[in-house]
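User: Can you recover a sequence for this backbone? Please restate the input before giving your answer.

Assistant: Of course. Working from this structure:
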């Protein structure tokens, strides 16, 4: 958790006291275009970094860039950008979300306008759900008043108590400008493992049909993911109005990674650590990782997640 995690309880307590200040700021924002708060999107830089560092995720690149382009070219978007990242462990969801915010705000995750939520840290107790709902609503409202370009990242959605996330529904749609605050310029990103099984199954079916992973139908995958998370009580989106009302603009599927992708991750990691890229090490690290399904051993069970820690064993 970054700085936002540490300041959350304190700032929540100060929220009501700060309400008057927001109103003043909101009033000023309604008369000037001075509310972009350091927001400086660099789409070309993002595209370039994705192309160089992200392996095996053709749909991610496509969905992310298209979503951002469509959204950012509008001076006055009709609704906030809402994206949902899905996929099994180690496929790059957190990696991409951090890269994305680095190309929206120069300070990246350290920016005061980037807010990360993790259920285990921020919403740990089921019996306090009603309080969490109130806090979350106020936190989002307060920060959007302060900076209409705020980014909200919801990590580990599958650990979110059922029903909790629906409290933010009013911020995700084409709501009216309230007290001069334009809620429609914000970016919301949900991240979860839910839907990962469906993604893996579809990718496997495609492989068995001798088709390339680039040929996966995004529409089919999107439908399968939405259905899976809506029907799964452990997805954070169980029977959620966010799914039912189609408030997610872009579903971003992270495909399971194959052995050659893992090898690429090993090479990237060696280069990043300033170590020599030795063929033997790359091979050994990739071989030390478990693969599924049992028979074909095609996809890495942990994606590239354990690559960095394994390198020291083999180097
Ligand atoms: N597709 C990828 N391309 C390049 N590197 C990757 C990719 N996926 C994962 N990695 C590497 O593995 C590390 C761990 O990945 P990351 O934390 O993004 O996984 P995750 O999908 O968020 O997993 P989890 O669901 O467990 O949170 C990253 O920091 C990155 O170094
Ligand atoms: Mg993650």
């Amino acid at each position: 958790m970054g700085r936002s995690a540490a300041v959350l309880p304190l700032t929540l307590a100060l929220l009501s006291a700060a309400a008057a200040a927001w109103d003043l700021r909101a009033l000023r924002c309604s008369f000037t275009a001075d509310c972009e708060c350091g927001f400086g999107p660099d789409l070309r830089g993002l595209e370039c970094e994705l192309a160089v560092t992200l392996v095996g995720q053709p749909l991610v690149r496509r969905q992310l860039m298209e979503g951002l382009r469509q959204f950012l070219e509008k001076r006055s978007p009709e609704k906030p950008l809402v994206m949902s990242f899905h996929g099994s462990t180690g496929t790059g969801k957190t990696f991409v979300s951090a890269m994305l915010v680095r190309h929206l705000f120069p300070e990246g995750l350290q920016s005061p306008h980037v807010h990360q939520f993790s259920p285990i840290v921020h919403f740990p107790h089921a019996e306090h759900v009603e309080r969490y709902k109130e806090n979350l609503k106020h936190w989002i409202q307060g920060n959007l008043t302060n900076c209409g370009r705020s980014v909200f990242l919801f990590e580990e959605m599958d650990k979110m108590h059922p029903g909790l996330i629906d409290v933010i529904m009013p911020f995700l749609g084409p709501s009216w400008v309230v007290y001069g605050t334009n809620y429609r310029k914000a970016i919301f990103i949900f991240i979860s493992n839910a839907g990962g099984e469906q993604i893996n199954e579809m990718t496997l079916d495609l492989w068995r049909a001798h088709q390339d992973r680039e040929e996966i139908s995004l529409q089919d995958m999107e439908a399968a993911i939405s259905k899976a998370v809506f029907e799964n009580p452990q997805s954070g989106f169980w029977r959620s109005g966010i799914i039912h009302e189609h408030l997610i603009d872009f579903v971003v599927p992270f495909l399971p990674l194959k052995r050659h992708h893992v090898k690429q991750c090993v090479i990237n990691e060696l280069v990043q650590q300033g170590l020599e890229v030795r063929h033997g090490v790359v091979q050994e690290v990739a071989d030390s990782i478990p693969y599924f399904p049992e028979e074909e051993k095609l996809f890495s069970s942990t994606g590239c997640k354990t690559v960095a820690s394994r390198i020291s064993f083999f180097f």
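That completes the design. The two ends are 30 Å apart (CA to CA).
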